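FORM 7B: Structural annotation worksheet

SECTION A. Query
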Amino acid sequence: MLYPPIQCNRSFHLPVGSTHQLYVEESGSSDGLPVVFLHGGPGASCEPIHRRFFNPERYRIILFDQRGSGKSRPHASLQENTTSDLIDDLETIRQHLKIDRWVLFGGSWGSTLALLYAQAFPERVMGLVLRGIFLARVQDIGWFYQRGGASRLFPDAWQKFIEPIPEGERDDMVAAYARRLTGENELERMAAAKAWSAWEGSTATLRPSDSLLEYFADPHVAFSIARIEAHYFVNHCFIEQDQVLRDMPRINHLPGFIVHGRYDAICPIDQAFELHQRWPGSELKVIGDAGHAASEPDTARALVACCDELLHMLDDSVA
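SECTION B. Predicted structure
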C-alpha cells in the first residue's frame, strides 16, 4: 500500500516573515522529481508516514510544517499567519531549495493551499495530487461547524463540540471558539482546543480510528489545529468566496488527480465534483469505502497509485 518507512535526508528551520521559522525536511532521491507535501488544518503537521506516499527512488520529497504548526516556530502563532503568507512561504522554500518546478500534494486544507499556490504560480507547477477537497467557501465551513450539516451525521460528537459554548453564542460556533482560543484564560483555551480537535478527529474516518483520535487528542496538536483553524475560518480563509473555482482557468491545463472519500463528512464529495468539472486536466477517483482521512486504506492506496501514475505522465510529457 504505502512505500516502506524512510528517514529524512536532512531537516532545517527556514526563517520567513518577521517571526516565523518553518520546519522543512527532505527525503527520497536528491535528484528525483520534486514534490511538496501540504498538510491539512490549517494547523496540523507533517508526520514521517507522509513520506511514504511517494516512490523514494523517483521523488525528491519535501515536507514542511506551515506557520504555527508542528515543529515550526513559534507554536500556534497567529501573527503574520494568512493564506497569502503561506503561498509566499511555498515560494521561499522552492527558491531556497533551488527547485524550478515541482509537484504539489495536498489534502483537505492542503488541497486548498495547493490550488491557490498553483493559481498564483502556474509556471512553477508540474502537476497536482489532491485529496479531500476543501473549497473554503462560507457553506463549506458552515457545513462542518454549524448545526444542520455534519452534526446530523455525528450528533453524539456534536453535543460534545458545542458543550464549551453557551447556547446564546451557538449561532456562530467558529467565532465563539475563536474568542476562547485567543482569550487570556489558559484553562478555557485548552478546553476549547481539545473540544474543537476532538470533533474533527471523531468525524475524519468512515470507521473509528484510535490512532487518529490519539493524534487529535495530543495537547500540542490540538492547540495549533484549533487555534489556527478558527483564525482562518473566522476570516473566511483570507480569500474571496468561490475564489478557488473562479480561478481554475489559470491551471486547468495542468495534469492532476482528485481523490475523495464517498462518505467524507468533513468535506462533502460535492466539492470534489465541482472542482473536477472546472478542471479538464484532472482525473477524479471516488473512494467508496472511505471518509476524509488520508490514512484510510483505500484512500492511501489510491494516493500512492496517483503519485506513481503522475511520474509516468510527466516522463511521457518530456520524452
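SECTION C. Observations
The chain has two domains: 10-137+238-318, 139-236. The chain has eleven helices and eight strands.

SECTION D. Sign-off
Analyst initials: ____
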